[in-house]
TrEMBL record:
Domain EAL span(s) in chain numbering: 24-278
Domain of life: Bacteria
UniProt subcellular location: Cell inner membrane
Annotated organism of origin: Stutzerimonas kirkiae
Native organism taxonomy: Bacteria, Pseudomonadati, Pseudomonadota, Gammaproteobacteria, Pseudomonadales
Name of the molecule in the record: cyclic-guanylate-specific phosphodiesterase
Length: 282
């Protein structure tokens, strides 16, 4: 009945819901295609050592430009990839492409200390992840310390038993593990004892608010103290102004990332940036 007459009282979806569902399906199909044809790209954002002014590392961030949908934000296509079972493939692609790019820059004589790749909790369900990463690293003649994996606190809500095992395995290999968006996701700090973390990334919301909000300022202070006590690297993300940089430095932050230094850049622009920065430092 509903099928024969789209406007029937029996139709399950309103026109609006129907349209949303169709858009989502079209986007899902397009994402599947983009992964198959490898038309996603990575942009790269430098992380700066505030004391030396030198490059600490580079974060790889996924980008998707679709001929009709235009630029689709990772805030949209990452959750979509998770929902429709494509996140495993996306994670492998990001790892592979980041390692390939890092190796290419090094061959070109550019000094890039390490690369950070974002992974979703689901990526750690894969018992083959450690082996896959090791294969990828050796294929590009890279060492485990060249790679850092960024995870978020949502990994803690994940009850899959493989997750902790894979995290421990990866860490035991010497690959870096970083807690991204630190301070936003989870109310208990107890997990810092259980997870093998090397790095904390202070969420950009605290950096954004620290100049005007005493509580945010107190929290940025608390986070660097936690990181120091646990001998972890702490990276401040979303640093946009000189004032924020100075406040962070006063508190003891040594590594920062944000528009103040550079936006995420396409590979060729990142390469130009690297050449300019090397020139400045020599
Ligand atoms: P994230 O890993 O926390 O990345 C930082 C986000 O902040 C990026 O947004 C970056 O472009 C943005 N950003 C950098 N500097 C500044 C700044 O100074 N100010 C402000 N306001 N923003 C800044 P983007 O690229 O849109 O990525 C959003 C999120 O999508 C990432 O957050 C990450 O969670 C996820 N993501 C991106 N690429 C991947 C990927 O390859 N795999 C997975 N699983 N997730 C990814
Ligand atoms: Mg990240
Ligand atoms: Mg973050
Ligand atoms: Mg984030």
């Amino acid at each position: 009945q509903a099928k024969a007459n789209g406007r029937s009282h029996f139709s399950f979806f309103s026109d609006e819901m129907n349209q949303l569902a169709q858009e989502r399906l079209a986007l899902e199909t397009a994402l599947r295609e983009a992964l198959q044809q490898r038309t996603l790209t990575l942009h790269y954002q430098p992380q700066i050592n505030l004391e030396s002014g030198r490059l600490h590392g580079i974060e790889a961030l996924a980008r998707w430009h679709h001929p009709t949908f235009g630029n689709v934000s990772p805030m949209r296509f990452i959750p979509l990839a998770e929902e429709c079972g494509l996140i495993g493939q996306l994670g492998q692609w990001a790892l592979e492409e980041s390692c390939r790019q890092l190796a290419a820059w090094r061959r070109a004589g550019l000094d890039v200390p390490a690369i950070s790749v974002n992974l979703s909790p689901t990526n750690f369900h894969n018992l083959e992840l450690t082996r896959y990463i090791n294969d990828t690293l050796s294929e590009h003649a890279l060492a485990p310390r060249d790679l850092t994996l960024e995870i978020t606190e949502s990994v803690l809500l994940d009850t899959n038993p493989s997750t902790l095992r894979t995290l421990n395995e990866v860490h035991a290999q010497g690959i870096g593990l970083s807690m991204d968006d630190f301070g936003t996701g989870y109310s208990s700090l107890g997990y810092l004892r259980r997870l093998p973390l090397d790095e904390l990334k202070l969420d950009k919301i605290f950096v954004h608010d620290m100049e005007h909000d005493e509580t945010a300022l107190a929290l940025t202070h608390a986070v660097i103290r936690i990181g120091e006590s646990l001998k972890m690297t702490v990276v401040a993300e979303g640093v946009e102004t000189q004032a924020q940089r100075e406040l962070l430095e006063q508190q003891g932050y040594k590594v920062a990332q944000g528009y103040l230094f550079s936006r995420p850049l396409a590979p060729e622009q990142m390469e130009d940036w690297l050449r300019r920065t090397v020139d400045q430092n020599t």
